[in-house]
Design goal:
Strand content of chain A: 15-25%
Distance between the termini of chain A: 86 Å
Radius of gyration of chain B: 41 Å
Shape of chain A: elongated
Largest sheet of chain A: 8 strands, antiparallel
Strand order of the largest sheet of chain A: 1-2-3-4-8-7-6-5
Number of helices of chain A: 28
Strand order of the largest sheet of chain B: 1-2-3-4-8-7-6-5
Distance between the termini of chain B: 84 Å
Number of strands of chain A: 18
Structural class of chain A: alpha+beta
Oligomer: heterodimer
Number of domains of chain A: 3
Largest interface: A-B, 102 and 101 residues
Radius of gyration of chain A: 46 Å
Helix content of chain B: 40-55%
Number of domains of chain B: 3
Shape of chain B: elongated
Chain lengths: 799, 822
């Protein structure tokens, strides 16, 4: 990277020398266009011309623009010996003056300041054909000489004072004596002896250009086709990448918008300098629309450009591989508004210089003898008539967006592919060549020269990128335009253009100096920290909502399962089994075995009203209380009463818990239990092979506070003999429904219990669960299903 | 026979409200009548039609061949290309000067021109003929490499005589004298050297802003090119064209802005749904591919339908290839956009109106002749019939005889396969508009507007602003608004009344009725297609209508695609979590207790949907205050469950007034294993504040919560419990408080947030808060701290990585035990 610090400035110096050498001989401005009139002079000429035609332009607003006619350029290059074609320069300066009333005057000058067209536009309807007031011959001759100059003698009159809607038309023609099909025309329209319109034009027959045109068409066709294809592909990839990354991170969007604001600089400067208003005036004239609409369109367009550039940068940023990150440090700093940091200064300095270095490369192919025919054309001539020409190279920040697309998005995208290096280079090279050549085409008529020039430029850009970064690439176009523009203005050879050229050169040298000062004296930053900051932070990464929720529920389910006893306790002379199947991911049912201090075992089944996570929360809350209660005496009414109080507070009477809690005094074979609104436990007695439901009084926990609860709570005590089975269950069992919405019911439970009472607790539990599942069939379980089975075993069998 | 019940069965539930049943009955039974009324009204409106063509593709080709034959070329085997273009300026001019414009002027300055290009198979000679809507020839031109009329030995006078003869023959009775002198010049436009061009200009009487320009290019005595063109004065352009085109551009910009903004958002929503596995990739692809294939087929059949300039040199070579490539790329992008828009919007309908896609799902499952598809089609067609009448009423009131309906189809009518293009375009345009008006705006609106009437209003406004595609937004033209309004109603009304498929069916049917009825009147070609179209409609509609009453009705779950099941699953999970959050909030104290001698403030801001942090207060009977502050890690629901477990335990324990250190030790012993989470153990602290003694006791297991004490002189000290004793997991300590001291208890969410904001230590925060405000109570410190942390405009609150829980207590002054108990 250090090499670049001196190599790029050296390249810029060499390039300036190359330009000084080749510009006069090879550049289209020096060879063909040769501008002599600046904007201010063109406006002054227009004002003077208007005055001669009796148009008082005081108080009118002025706009000026420069354009070239490609057909005419082609004809002049193809027939350089034709005096007719030489009489009109393909470059023209259009000056438009508009009165507050809407009346306007358009004048067109060639680069030397000779008028080539004049048109007065009135806002009122013409009043009949002006056949009266035919223009006197001396007026006609004077106008012909004004527009045709020294060649006026070659013109012959073809129409004289023919009436038309505009006025009286008089026309002259100058046919090229050497070549049929090339001619110049001058047309003058007068009304009441006043000039309304004058037009000097040249015409070249289609057949004379058809050969070069066809070649040109083929080349342009192939290049534009490639540009459309590759451009669409890059645009699609960029947009897709932008959105798909947006779902997992947002930092790239913020980066893109912040960094993309750089593209606002030329747009803002165009607003401030009046360039937009200038463009709007001509757009209004050419496409017939109000200036306000055009300006609104321009605002919309500008916003879209900024968004587009931001989107491009965001896309590239989102998929930066590690090795590309050092090239984005300066742009990252810009996005963080640290524009006075040394890396920013370095990249802008080297970008401006690198751009200047590129300018020379465009001229090199013209040294190859076989390619010397072409002129080099780097920039459109708009800058010549720009209201603030020195600033216009700043427009490189938006016009160089093709390079930005290549280096800021396409390259990172290629680098993110698992491809070999040569494949990435080949893909980048091919796409880059097509894009850069199709958009820039520095030798409009020499495709080989264009390809060589653009190949050199692309290679140089790649080298600049390798040693600097994306910000430098972005500023390259600015440097290129500044160098090219200054060269054009300085070589024009008129004092006004020299002054403008000096302004451009000084302004950009000043900008270069400021950037270099920032590089030298600006804030030093820890580049590793900046690279580190390009990692999306933890909060900016999000997963799919579903994955996150599913994972969260899986963890919750495991947590809840972990709160249930791993296995039932071993109680001598009893077998014990329990299970809980939540209807959803987590459930609101609970069973527990509580080791009371006196050696008694508490058996509990509880069911929280509602389902899902809210129920699960109250279920664990209940479990916590039970754990605490188990460390104290097995006083069932006290436990129930305390739990009721706390649940009433916690549930705010919106959630309640039903609970069946019993204490087994195993040695005595006594089971003491309470039923807080819960399903009655079912007791199977072996002696009479019958089932009965135990239904002591009790209200659900959390429904009513205090005395009412306690008043309604009964403790029931039963004796358990060998073979007796006690089943505690939740309503998920007896209210389980089949596909026809029939309830499982207590009868069925008793029946299955009777039939399987000879099995141990786990056998009975399995039988009940299997039966319930068979009964339910394909119907969804709508409630959690919990069951605890206690069987008093014969002591012998245990032995 | 037919009872109302049997008629309404496919459309409304048996237990539907009487109002809904009446509505449907009127809608269905009225439809045929209204359809007939609409057709009658349309025929009446069309009597005012400005543009009625008597030419079609065959006629203009025959005319061109005749012109070629008159010039000595047998063009019977030549390739023919035709296109029809309207002349916007002439249309505007005619609208302005209808009364003063004579028949002849209208012939010479026609509203629209059909241009026919005939090219010899060897490409050497071509002939181009332009005719007006009535078949009047307005231009003929010959050219090509092989076009070589004899020009030798002919003087300019002879050429002029030939031109004048041609002019006389062309215009018949129009006196040549009125034309005056021609302008004469040399031209090569005819493609042969040295043609003489004669231009006559004439202004029709009483029309100062119009000039007719007659151009003749004469080679020898052969007329290589003749043409008449209207030339409008600058004043007309300034006065009429510019303001109108400005308005159109404004409309265009507004539309572009809306479409781009909505598309960008839809792109984001599509990607989001793709991530959730809820994007209908197959359907999006199918839609995009269908548009691409059909559009591609239309281009393949007639590539020049899109070419605005029928120039012989553009029909071949690389330029054509580039044009076609650009066209296909544009079409592919459009297809992609359509696919993405559908993919983004479909989920929104599923989430908000689950049943409205059942018919479409049934159709895409291949059950075309099902009750669902049939009912939606019938409902759509019925709505279409109603809207058709309304549209025609609107046209007859505000824009009788408007041509805008058929603008886009005039050129199509002259293409090689007009019927194919019409049949392809109808559904595609309707789907395009349904995406633009409904699915894409829903991606944005559904999260922001809950009430259906407001939603309908917002959708309507967006749809009206976006305008009907492919019409140009002509803001000043009532016909544009009628058509847009009709399309908006055709998309939205059947959707909210029935379902999405009905909405598409209504849009297709309405567009077809408006378009075809107008085309039949305006273009002769379509009259010959009436029988075929009628048959096509009958073949499509009758079986579907029968299926509506006799077919099988599929339930949503039978035809639901897998991505839709994913939506339902996510919604159910989210609903559970949201319920969990409510439940969890109920577990937190509603407000801090009122304890004499202290003021208390507390808050808990969860980072995720449910929080893992927790605090609770237990005022004890002796005036002391027990507190729990706990931190359950970042496992979401699992943390919430763990915290609830601990809360249950501690709540029960608190009833015994035991020592807090002992309680915490018992908790560790009883539930230690359950308190460990994958994201770290649950750490919690119990506090006992004795306002009478001014003493705060703390027992803590784990590193958090931590306690800072802010004294009235703004000094901050951390209350650190005594170190662990060997084998103990609980650390404890006590601290004496001075009146005015603030106790600030926080969990690790606070230092983490401060670290992310690089805003120093928690103690700095307290000092900062103390300097900002006069701190008179616990809540003033607490609120200041929370405000500093979650400053408005700062998005940090949305990006909490950990729950933010803090309890602030201000020890006012020591009180007596009696006072405390009281």
């Amino acid at each position: 990277m250090r090499t670049a610090n001196w190599l790029i400035p050296c390249g810029a110096a060499v390039s300036m020398a190359v330009m000084a050498w080749l510009f006069p001989a090879k550049d289209i401005y020096a060879r063909l266009f040769q501008p002599r009139v600046t904007r201010a002079e063109a406006i002054e000429l227009s004002r003077a011309l208007g005055a001669q035609y009796g148009v008082d332009t005081s108080g009118w607003t002025w706009a000026a623009t420069a354009e070239t006619r490609s057909e005419q350029t082609a004809a002049r290059i193809a027939y350089p010996d034709s005096a007719v074609l030489q009489s009109l320069n393909p470059l023209s300066f259009r000056v438009l003056a508009t009165a507050p009333s809407g009346e306007s005057m358009l004048t067109i000058f060639d680069p030397s300041g000779r008028p080539t067209a004049f048109q007065r536009r009135s806002v009122n309807a013409p009043r009949g054909a002006a056949s009266e007031g035919a223009a006197p011959p001396d007026l006609l001759q004077r106008e012909l000489e004004r527009y045709a100059g020294a060649r006026s003698g070659a013109f012959e009159l073809t129409s004289s004072g023919v009436a038309s809607q505009e006025g009286l038309r008089t026309a002259w023609e100058w046919r090229d004596p050497a070549r049929t099909g090339i001619l110049a025309r001058f047309e003058l329209v007068t009304r009441n002896r006043t000039v309304i319109r004058a037009t000097y034009s040249t015409e070249t027959a289609f057949r004379l250009l058809v050969h070069s045109r066809r070649e040109q068409q083929q080349v342009t066709g192939a290049l534009i086709g490639g540009l459309i294809g590759i451009g669409a592909l890059i645009a699609f990839l960029g947009i897709w990448n932008f959105f798909s990354r947006m779902t997992t991170r947002m930092d790239h969007v913020r980066f893109g918008l912040a960094a993309g604001l750089l593209a606002a600089a030329p747009i803002l400067s165009n607003w401030i300098t009046g360039t937009i208003a200038n463009q709007a005036a001509f757009a209004s004239l050419d496409i017939g629309s109000s200036a306000a609409t055009i300006i609104l369109g321009s605002v919309t367009g500008s916003v879209l450009i900024i968004v587009g550039v931001g989107l491009l940068l965001a896309s590239g940023y989102a998929l930066l591989p590690e090795r590309a990150k050092p090239h984005w440090v300066a742009l990252r700093l810009v996005s963080q508004r640290q524009v006075l940091a040394a890396p920013v200064g370095r990249e802008i300095t080297l970008g401006l210089l690198g751009g200047a270095a590129l300018a020379g490369l465009f001229y090199l192919p013209s040294l190859i003898p076989a390619l010397t025919g072409g002129y080099v054309q780097i920039a459109a001539p708009v800058f010549l008539m720009n209201p603030a020409p020195a600033i216009s190279p700043l427009s490189g920040l938006t016009t160089g967006v093709d390079l930005l697309a290549l280096f800021a998005f396409f390259l990172p995208w290629l680098q993110a592919r698992p491809w070999r290096g040569w494949m990435i280079n080949a893909a980048f090279g091919v796409a880059g060549m097509i894009i850069v050549t199709a958009i820039r085409q520095p030798y409009p008529r020499e495709i080989a020269a264009s390809l060589i020039a653009c190949g050199l430029v692309l290679a140089a850009l790649a080298a600049i990128y390798r040693t600097t970064g994306v910000l430098a690439i972005w500023f390259c176009t600015v440097g290129l335009l500044a160098a090219k523009q200054a060269a054009t203005q300085l070589s024009a050879g008129t004092p006004a253009y020299s002054a403008e050229g000096m302004q451009t050169a000084l302004l950009w040298l000043g900008a270069l100096l400021v950037a270099a000062m920032v590089w030298r004296f600006g804030a030093q930053v820890d580049e590793h920290a900046v690279i580190e900051s390009m990692q999306p932070s933890g909060s900016s990464i999000s997963r799919s909502d579903r994955d996150r929720l599913l994972a969260e529920f899986a963890v919750a389910r495991r947590a809840q399962e972990g709160m249930l006893p791993l296995a039932p306790p071993a109680i001598p002379a009893y077998s014990l089994a329990a299970s809980c199947e939540p209807a959803r991911e987590v459930g609101g049912d609970l069973y527990d075995f509580l080791p009371f201090p006196g050696g008694e075992w508490g058996l509990c089944v509880a069911d929280v009203s509602g389902k899902g996570v809210p129920a699960a929360l109250y279920m664990t809350l209940t479990k916590g209380m039970l754990v605490s209660a188990a460390s104290r005496a097995a006083d069932l009414p006290l436990i129930a009463s305390r739990m009721n109080r706390f649940l009433t507070e916690a549930g705010r009477r919106r959630t309640f818990v039903t609970m069946s809690l019993g204490v087994l005094d195993a040695p005595r074979g006594v089971f003491r239990h309470i039923r807080a609104g819960h399903n009655p436990p079912v007791l199977y007695t072996a002696q009479d092979r019958a089932c009965r439901y135990l239904m002591p009084k009790g209200i659900g926990l959390g429904i009513t506070a205090g005395a009412a609860f306690e008043r309604n709570l009964e403790v029931e005590e039963i004796g358990l003999n060998p073979g007796d089975v006690l089943v505690l269950y939740s309503d998920g069992l007896t209210e389980c429904m089949d596909t026809d919405r029939q309830l499982y019911g207590e009868e069925r439970l008793c029946d299955i219990l009777r039939r399987n009472a000879h099995l141990n607790a786990s056998g009975i539990q399995d039988a009940i669960l299997t039966d319930a599942r068979t009964f339910r069939g394909a119907a969804d379980p709508h409630d959690d299903l919990t069951i605890v089975v206690l069987r008093a075993e014969a002591r012998d069998s245990l032995r | 026979m037919f009872s109302a019940d049997s008629i309404l069965r496919p459309f409304v539930e048996a237990n539907a409200k009487a109002r809904a049943r009446r509505l449907w009955l009127v809608l269905l039974l009225g439809a045929p009548l209204l359809l007939a009324a609409g057709i009658w009204l349309q025929a009446r409106n069309n009597q005012h039609r400005n543009l009625i063509l008597s030419i079609d593709r065959e006629k203009v080709i025959a005319t061109a061949r005749r012109v070629a034959a008159e010039n000595g070329y047998d063009a019977s085997g030549w390739n023919a290309y035709v296109r029809f273009d309207q002349n916007e300026r002439t249309i505007r001019f005619v609208q302005e000067r209808r009364k003063t414009l004579g028949k002849r002027s209208r012939q010479l300055a026609p509203d629209g021109v059909a241009t026919t290009l005939l090219i010899a198979p060897d490409d050497r000679v071509w002939c181009r003929v332009a005719t007006g809507p009535d078949g009047f020839i307005v231009a003929t031109r010959f050219g090509g490499r092989g076009y070589r009329p004899n020009s030798e030995g002919i003087s300019e006078e002879q050429s002029r005589a030939a031109a004048e003869a041609a002019l006389r023959q062309w215009l018949g009775d129009m006196a040549l004298e009125r034309m005056g002198e021609p302008e004469v010049s040399t031209t090569e436009d005819a493609g042969v050297p040295s043609a003489r061009r004669f231009v006559w200009r004439v202004q029709p009487r009483r029309l100062p802003e119009l000039e007719l320009v007659f151009t003749f290019d004469v080679v020898g005595q052969t007329i290589a090119h003749r043409e008449v063109e209207p030339n409008y004065a600058q004043s007309f352009t300034n006065r009429v064209v510019t303001p109108l085109s400005s308005l159109q551009q404004m409309g265009g910009m507004l539309r572009s802005f809306i479409i781009i903004a909505l598309s960008l958002y839809a792109g984001f929503r599509f990607a989001r749904r793709a991530l959730e596995r809820e994007a209908p990739h197959r359907r999006a692809f199918l839609l995009g591919a269908t548009v691409l294939v059909f559009g591609g087929a239309a281009i393949f059949v007639d590539p020049f339908i899109h070419d605005t300039d029928l120039r012989p040199d553009r029909l071949q070579g690389p330029i054509l290839m580039v044009q076609l490539l650009a066209l296909v790329v544009g079409l592919a992008m459009q297809s992609l956009l359509l696919g993405i828009s559908y993919g983004a919007g479909e989920g929104e309908i599923r989430e908000s109106w689950p049943g409205k896609l059942t018919s479409l799902d049934t159709l895409l499952n291949g059950h075309i002749l099902s009750a669902n598809v049939g009912a939606s089609t019938v409902a759509g067609v019925a709505c279409g019939a109603w809207l058709f009448l309304l549209t025609q009423v609107a046209f007859s009131l505000w824009a009788p005889g408007s041509d805008s309906t058929i603008d886009n189809y005039l050129n199509v009518s002259f293409s090689r396969a007009p019927l194919m293009i019409l049949l392809i375009n109808l559904p595609i345009v309707s789907i395009f508009n349904s995406l633009l008006y409904l699915l894409v705006p829903l991606t944005f609106l559904r999260r922001r507007i809950e009430k259906t009437p407001l939603m309908i209003l917002a959708l309507t406004l967006i749809a009206l602003a976006a305008g009907k595609i492919p019409l140009v937004p002509e803001i000043s033209n009532p016909a544009y608004w009628i058509e847009t309004g009709a399309m908006v109603a055709a998309i939205l009304a059947p959707f909210f009344l029935a379902d999405y498929l009905a909405s598409v069916a209504a849009a297709i049917f309405l567009t077809f009725l408006c378009l075809f009825g107008d085309l039949v009147v305006a273009v002769p070609f379509w009259q010959s297609q009436m029988g075929l179209m009628g048959a096509l409609i009958a073949i499509t509609f009758i079986p579907l209508a029968i299926a509506a009453w006799t077919g099988r009705r599929y339930e949503d779950e039978e035809v639901r695609p897998s991505h839709a099941r994913n939506i339902l699953q996510r919604l159910s999970l989210q609903a559970e979590v949201s319920a969990a959050r409510q439940a969890q909030l109920r577990l937190l104290p509603e407000h801090p207790p009122r304890i004499p001698g202290v003021s208390i403030a507390a808050s808990c801001t969860p980072a995720g949907d449910v929080g893992g942090d927790f605090y609770d207060f237990f005022p004890l009977s002796d005036g002391r205050l027990g507190m729990i502050v706990a931190e359950g890690g970042n496992d979401g629901l699992a943390s919430a469950l763990t915290i609830a477990l601990a809360k249950g335990f501690l709540r029960y324990e608190s009833s015994d007034n035991s020592d807090i250190e002992l309680i915490l030790t018992r908790l560790e012993a009883a539930l230690g294993s359950s308190l460990r989470r994958t994201s770290g153990r649950t750490s919690l602290a119990l506090f006992l504040l004795d306002p009478a003694q001014g003493v705060l006791q703390m027992a803590r297991s784990g590193a958090y919560p931590r306690v800072l004490i802010l004294s009235p002189d703004h000094a901050v000290a951390e209350f650190v419990p005594d170190p662990h004793e060997a084998g103990q997991s609980v650390e404890s300590g006590r601290v004496a408080l001075m009146p005015g001291d603030f106790i600030f208890i926080y969990t690790d969410g606070l230092p983490r947030l401060l670290a992310r904001k690089a805003a120093g230590q928690p103690s700095d925060l307290l000092v900062q808060a103390a300097h900002l405000h006069h701190l008179g109570s616990a809540s003033s410190l607490h609120n200041t701290v929370v405000d500093l942390l979650l400053a408005s405009g700062d998005q940090t609150s949305l990006e909490l990585t950990d729950d933010l829980t803090a309890v602030t207590i201000r020890f006012e002054n020591a009180i007596s035990l009696g006072e405390a108990v009281a």
